[in-house]
Amino acid sequence: MREPPNGKHWTIYDVAREAGVSAKTVSQVLNQKEGVADKTRARILAIMEEVDYQPHIGARALRGGGTACIGLTLPVSLDVVPISEEVLLWLFGRLLKLFGSRGEYICFDINPGGNSANGDYARGLWQQLYRGCVVAGPLPLDDTTARRIHDWGAPYLVLSRLDGFPELSCATVDFEQGAYESTKFLIERGHKRIAMLKAFTGFQPGLERRRGFLRALEEAGIAPDESLIRAVSFDFHDVTRCVHRLLMDTSVTALIDCSATEDGVSLRNGARRAGRTLGKDFDVLTWSYREDEAVLAEACAQMWLPQFDATGEGFDELSAWFHGDREGPIHVVYRPTLLDKVPETEISQPRRMFDSRG
């Protein structure tokens, strides 16, 4: 892709100059208006595709008496990482308190790819609709957009990390430490054959889970068995199947559920199919985003992931950056907390971080 003439981004005037037409003609093409010859229209569209031109929506808003806003976007679709409606409402409430109360607009781009040929999850920045943004959700390991956002210079916050990019502005939980402490806890209880249900394959949080698990085994001198690490989706049938298969191996005496599904029913169903009894012939350590509710009341321990707390602090820092009271980037990483006394009340379906399907 050719570099823009001004070193930052292509404008409507740059495209017009490249095509040998007026900015008004380019505007007509952008707005799908008549009055432009087919050959000219095709040439303009080809140039826009080649240079990844993004229309300046913020400028349009200013001309109409509006303003830019704080935007929230998703790095992947809800079909891949199904963030629950409750969490989306919580995110909106926090943004409303910090930005809406000061008169800024709030924009959620839940389907950032859309039908646009040039669309990506930061299109609200490229089109200058946002003056700052939140990227809600885990980042894929091959993500390149986050660095482009960083280089753009606007205030931003990602609810994930990326290896090799420590300067990323983020608010998240140290999932690697959570996996390490979970595994170490079970090893100290005498377990050597420990299985893991792992979420987010192909994403940074999934890599961190695996790394922490293997590090604890290595420190204890236990050879890892790759067959005991099972990647699961957000389908509750998949969780049940994976638990069943893992526990059919009677040498497995402990299971770490860091699947992010927070689904105790599927864990019980999988164990029942394998003829195993929770808390009797094997231990389960669950992970949850809730401190006061359990995934599984009979679990030997629960790892609490304070993602809500980390996000709240990150939003406060983002607001300060957005309003000129501090400089970025932001770096908020909370340590998980092991609860060896598991809460008695179990999490209900509507209160989970992610929606399960089946």
- Please give the order of strands in the largest beta sheet: 7-6-8-9-10-12
| Top CATH class of the largest domain | Alpha Beta
Q: Structural class of the secondary elements?
A: alpha/beta
Under CATH, the topology of the largest domain can be stated as Rossmann fold
Give the full name of the CATH homologous superfamily of the largest domain.
Response regulator
Number of strands: 12
Q: Could you tell me the radius of gyration in angstroms? A: 24 Å
Break the fold down into its secondary structure elements and pairings.
Layout: H1 12-19, H2 23-30, H3 38-51, H4 57-63, E1 69-73, H5 85-98, E2 105-109, H6 123-126, E3 130-135, H7 145-152, E4 156-158, E5 170-173, H8 175-188, E6 194-198, H9 204-219, E7 229-231, H10 236-247, E8 254-258, H11 264-273, E9 283-288, E10 301-304, H12 307-322, E11 331-334, E12 337-339
Parallel strand pairs: 1-2, 1-3, 3-4, 5-11, 6-7, 6-8, 8-9, 9-10
Antiparallel strand pairs: 10-12
Polypeptide structure, described:
The protein is α/β, with parallel strands linked by helices and 358 residues long. It folds into 3 domains: 41 residues, lambda repressor-like DNA-binding domains (434 Repressor (Amino-terminal Domain), Orthogonal Bundle), CATH 1.10.260; 142 residues, Rossmann fold (3-Layer(aba) Sandwich); 146 residues, 3-Layer(aba) Sandwich (Rossmann fold), CATH 3.40.50.2300. It has a 6-stranded mixed β-sheet, with helices on both faces. The chain has a 4-stranded parallel β-sheet with strand order 2-1-3-4, sandwiched between helices. The protein has a two-stranded parallel sheet with strand order 5-11. Helix 7 links the parallel strand 3 and strand 4. Helix 1 packs across helix 2, helix 8 runs parallel beside helix 9 and helix 10 packs parallel to helix 11. The longest helix is centred in the middle third of the chain and has 16 residues. The radius of gyration is 24 Å and the shape is elongated.
